[in-house]
Design a protein that fits this description.
The chain has three domains: 3-167, no CATH class; 171-269, Ankyrin repeat-containing domain (Serine Threonine Protein Phosphatase 5, Tetratricopeptide repeat), CATH 1.25.40; 270-397, Serine Threonine Protein Phosphatase 5, Tetratricopeptide repeat (Alpha Horseshoe), CATH 1.25.40. 52% of the residues lie in helices and 9% in strands. It has 21 helices and seven strands. The protein has helices at 3-12, 28-36, 42-50, 54-67, 80-88, 91-101, 106-120, 123-133, 142-155, 158-166, 202-209, 212-220, 246-252, 256-264, 275-289, 293-301, 316-322, 326-334, 355-361, 365-373, 384-388; strands spanning 175-176, 180-185, 191-200, 228-233, 240-245, 343-344, 352-353. The strands form two sheets. Strands 1, 2, 3, 4 and 5 form a five-stranded antiparallel β-sheet that branches. A two-stranded antiparallel sheet has the order 6-7. Strand 6 and strand 7 form a beta hairpin. The chain is elongated. It starts with a helix and ends in a 9-residue tail after the last helix. This is Ankyrin. ANK repeats lie at residues 198-230, 312-344, 351-383. Pfam families: Ank, Ank_2, Ank_5.
Length: 397
């Protein structure tokens, strides 16, 4: 028994469904029987899009072309099929649905644009929506335009960004993030977790996401390098507690390409004693652990010492060696790291090991070769490991 016959039999015996009978249709012949009996095709249309049933969808669109409208369903007032199609269907299907949707108001057009940017991320579909629904609009609603501008910055869509800027949206617009918890420095030392909201600009968002191309486009269009991410806490007041520059945010994200773009445009990061120096040291160890050789080189150029030690007593070089990151090892040694700076064993903290011993322990011949190239001593030579474990650096023990 087919799905349609089963549903009809159940309905005759008093069954009640929370969904339309067409929600249970997954077979082409069943769909045709429903259409012949004049059933509502709305749910079949949505199902065919959702499950990528191209044969069923093509048939429904053909019927719509004959009738001049979607059967018992006005996609102009409720463009749900179009929204679903934008999120997953071929561009030809989207174009067909657009024909029957006709003109859509700006609010719904912005919704479709946001779906295409956030979920589909296909430039061809995004440009199709812009040309279809925004071509003749110059005065765009500011709130929706600003939201779309930030979304374009977050997902790196230069075409959308330029389209909105040409229509008067401010490149330095600000947008407040939803409330969330974050760690902020405590005036008494340490950190505290508070409810915060960040006040951002498109440049800050693009830098935070690591979109170097978008950062450059924004700067070319007048985005301000002096923009600051302002953290507003909701613990005792709405006062601004912390402000991060675009460079701070790019460094924290280990986005080397963005940092270089910002540097070219004149942004600088001054490493001084105190918070910025500590921040740079923490970032250097993070970059070593994340195998980010470009970021390591940038931090060394900014003056962060390659001989710093984390709370565990390990130098950046020891971290890079222990994680077998050959390129990072080479960058650190080129930047002046001492190939003999030893650190504690990973489980026996009273035992010191040089980078060469670490590399040998992991059997990493490439790292061993790089260390030897930069002057590391063979641990079998007399006094080699003792030099690395000298008491000049008692913190390593």
């Amino acid at each position: 028994m087919g799905n349609v016959q089963l549903v009809d039999m159940l309905l005759e015996h008093g069954a009640r469904f929370s969904l339309s009978p067409t929600d249970y249709v997954f077979d082409y012949d069943d769909l045709m029987e429903l259409i012949l009996h004049g059933r509502n095709c709305k749910d079949a249309l949505l199902n065919s899009i959702h499950f990528n049933q191209s044969r069923i969808l093509t048939t429904l669109l053909s019927i719509a072309k004959i009738n001049g409208h979607m059967p018992e369903f006005d996609v102009t007032t409720a463009p749900i099929p179009l929204a679903v199609a934008i999120s997953k269907s071929p561009i030809s299907t989207i174009e067909d649905l657009m024909v029957f949707a006709g003109d859509i108001d700006l609010e719904k057009s912005f919704t479709l644009l946001q779906i295409s940017m956030e979920w589909r991320r296909d430039p061809a579909i995004i440009n199709l929506i812009l040309s279809k629904y925004f071509k003749y609009y110059n005065d765009l609603p500011m709130e929706a335009s600003r939201s779309a501008l930030f979304q374009a910055a977050a997902y790196s869509y230069p075409d959308v960004l330029l389209f909105l800027l040409k229509r008067g949206v401010d490149v330095n617009s600000t947008l407040q993030s939803p409330m969330y918890f974050t760690a902020l420095p405590d005036y008494g030392g340490g950190i505290r977790y508070v409810a915060c909201q960040a006040l951002d600009t498109p440049l800050i968002v693009a830098a935070d996401k690591g979109h170097a191309e978008m950062v450059e486009v924004l700067l070319e269009r007048g985005a301000s390098l002096s923009a600051r991410r302002k953290w507003r806490t909701k613990d005792h007041s709405d006062r601004v507690e912390v402000e991060d520059s675009v460079m701070d945010i790019s460094l924290d994200g280990l986005h080397a390409d963005v940092v270089r773009v910002l540097h070219w445009w004149g942004a600088r990061w001054e490493v001084e004693e105190g918070n910025q120096k500590e921040r740079g040291e923490r970032l250097l160890i993070s970059a070593c652990r994340e195998n980010n050789a470009d970021m390591v080189e940038i931090l060394l150029e900014y003056g962060i010492s390659p001989e710093i030690r984390g709370e565990d007593g390990k130098t950046p070089l020891l971290w890079a060696v222990s994680m077998r990151h050959t390129n990072v090892v080479r960058s650190l040694l080129k930047g002046g790291a001492n190939p003999e700076s030893a650190g504690p064993h990973y489980y026996d903290t009273k035992r010191c090991m040089t980078p060469l011993l670490w590399a040998a322990h992991y059997g990493d011949s490439e790292v061993v070769d790089v260390l030897l190239e930069f002057g590391a001593k063979d641990s079998r030579q007399e006094g080699a490991s003792e030099e690395g474990c000298s008491e000049e650096n008692p913190s390593q023990f």
